[in-house]
Amino acid sequence: MTHDAGVTSALRDWVAPDIGMDGPNYRALIREALKFKQGYPDRAREVLLGRAIYFLFFNPSLRTRSSFVTGLSKMGGLPIVLDPDGIYTPALPGDEMPYATERISDVARVLSEFGDAIGIRMYGEPAKWVYGHAHRCIEAFAKWSGIPVINMECDRFHPCQALADVMTLTEKLGSLNARRLCISWAYSGSWHKPVAVPQSLLLAAAKCGMDITVSHPRGFELDAGVASTAGAFAKESGATLRFVNDFREGINGAEVVYAKSWCSLTCLPKHLGSPVNEARMTDLFEQHRDWCVTDEVMALAAPEAGYMHCLPADRGQEVSDGVLDGPRSWVFAQAGNRLHAQNAIMTKLLNPMCLS
């Protein structure tokens, strides 16, 4: 691939920096992003003047779409949002339909002739709920593209959200070493949320030396390979990591409660064309309707603990209005950092000297 020589190998594609970027480089990126935010908007003006990025959203989006488009526009760049249903839908070999799809290798090489980067958001139904299929599509874009590829959320990772999350944690807590974070599953009336957010947060927090508890009912385990990688990062940073199956035990004493819903990987199909085991998925969800963050539950956390959620939140299911709208909610500061995290990512990829 013909990327800018000034971009480090760990950042050539923002496809899975969660796995590929080591702890020291990731912590350095957090510092760069926070510093870049402090100079916003003056420091960012015209940083990406004339740069064009293509954004493909296979899934609905509010924060990701608006923050990327706003950020790139204010930095002088040109955001071009492509509707996957309005073009020949990009597809992997074996998933193609005549005159309806176009092989990803061809799409990536064509867009590389026109623009400076490609952003892709894909998970769930567009990937037929086969875990890892959406990530393989993004990896195929990266393989064939001559320009950087940004993962705007897939079925395995959400690196842009994770960077915004650790920026927010740093602003609220200062040093993250040994600070107590609970990443908890929470009930939703829909099972359709992927594991991308908790998995990326787990990896990011492990790189930052946090004391991490992952709390979920049995049947909602995260990817074992991701958990193992988080353990390896924890050894380097001094982080601690434990998994529990009790909602209140996980939140007890936490300084940060990050509670949201995610699907059960055990109920997803292994192959394209196979169905989701919706009956079992629904049964697993309905057994745990009490996994909702209320003021009573937050009282179990540390006295100054904050609540976080990537949004959109299912009010009255994942979290009560009192918590989400209350003084302990860090959710909207967290959402605001999506803009700054992604500005830093785009700048790091396309004009890295402006972050120094």
From TrEMBL:
Superkingdom of this protein's organism: Bacteria
Transferase in keyword set: yes
SUPFAM superfamilies named in the record: Aspartate/ornithine carbamoyltransferase
Keyword annotations of the record: Transferase
Domain Aspartate/ornithine carbamoyltransferase carbamoyl-P binding: 25-171
Pfam families: OTCace, OTCace_N
Stretches assigned to the Aspartate/ornithine carbamoyltransferase Asp/Orn-binding domain: 197-347
Record keyword Transferase present: yes
GO molecular function: amino acid binding; ornithine carbamoyltransferase activity
Any one of the GO BP annotations: citrulline biosynthetic process
Primary role: Reversibly catalyzes the transfer of the carbamoyl group from carbamoyl phosphate (CP) to the N(epsilon) atom of ornithine (ORN) to produce L-citrulline.
Family: Belongs to the aspartate/ornithine carbamoyltransferase superfamily.
Entry protein name: Aspartate/ornithine carbamoyltransferase, Asp/Orn-binding region
